[in-house]
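<amino_acid_chain>
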Amino acid sequence: MAANVGPVCVVGGGPAGLALARSFKALNIPFDIYERHSDVGGLWDQTNPGSPVYNSAHFISSKTQSHYIDYDMPEDYPDYPSNRQIHAYMRGFADTYGLRDHIRFNTGVTEAAREGDGWQVTLSNGETKRYAALVCATGTNWHPAMPTYPGTFTGEMRHASTYRSMDEFRGKRVLIIGAGNSGCDIACDAAQSADKAFISLRRGYHFIPKHIFGLPADVFAHNGPQLPMWATQRIFGVMLRLLNGDLTRLGLQKPDHRIFESHPILNTQLLHFLSHGDIKAKRDVARFEGKVVHFVDGTSEEIDLVLCATGYKWKIPYVDPALFHWKGGKPDLYMNLFSRETPGLYALGYMETNGGAYKLFDEMADLIARTIIARANGGEAARNVDAMIASDRPDLSGGIKFVGSDRHATYVEIDAYRRQMARLRKRFNWPELKDGTFEHLRVGARKAAAE
């Protein structure tokens, strides 16, 4: 099927790279994966230098909505697996499909430069290789973004990517800055182990329970009626008010946006600790003065450790940034996959959405694979694909007006994204892929098992 396809370079052996490997292998696309670490798993391997995964980290989507297609997570896994279970799952995935044979471990890519209609790739050992296409799959959580404030803080201040264990908080007065899912998780650790614990939030947020009526929240949403987004927002908004009550009673700010208009926070454990006084909510930081942190509401606290859960800069350091168009500090890709400016340049994992990633990675990897094949075969199909990538700008918001932050510059609503993928498959006569219909991947699994 892929007789005309030149070799493809995939950078990164994490969750996205593994999805690509399985699809490329199943469709007979020649490829190599370069992984700078000694094992698969990306950031979920805590021994991978720079991994931001802390000991208490778990998936925020459930195991039934987050696994690779046709490769379920083990039955004995809990609803929300731990980081160690996720890493074990990915290692098993790589072994089951015979993917390790295509990965060069302990080998990074230092530069990938455009050369003619292909790529010259320079490896960390100095070796150079020639490839027809390049797929960046190195992820987004490797380059910490640190905030700056007026004044000087004389205590300890560092990014949450350096955090591992709640033991780091013992005997200290701790401030967590940032209320994403990691920030809330770490704040819960601080609530249990610090002498005093605080969390600083710039705005109010909607806190979604991990279980609704006994079901994981994403399973509840998936199994429920498929309503227009305005109705879903209204129903879930009412439900959260009934379940959580008025969050301002806990010192939190009232949200300045509707539910789903920012990345969902699946953490009501923080509300538990706030309601018990184990941690206190504070407004945004105004300035530092020695060990005293002043907040914008005029209050202040003496702090020993400031931990900044303030996100990451999205970088692809081995590729000239000019080969991408950037929006809000993020590569603005067609379908979050295809460079509009540079044919033969692809990316997987450079997106944020409101659903489980790995099933989506499978579908996205298949789109990349079929685009590579179409371009290699040439003709009208290749021209149509090129024209679509260059000019098509679909609305992937799903009717949601996302908050105007850089984080949401390339954010997509998962159902809207899947509908657009279905349109592309129909347009180019590519097979529709749904859970349980990945026949070419099942065949690949049987072959790998037989070997």
Remarks:
- The longest strand covers residues 109-115.
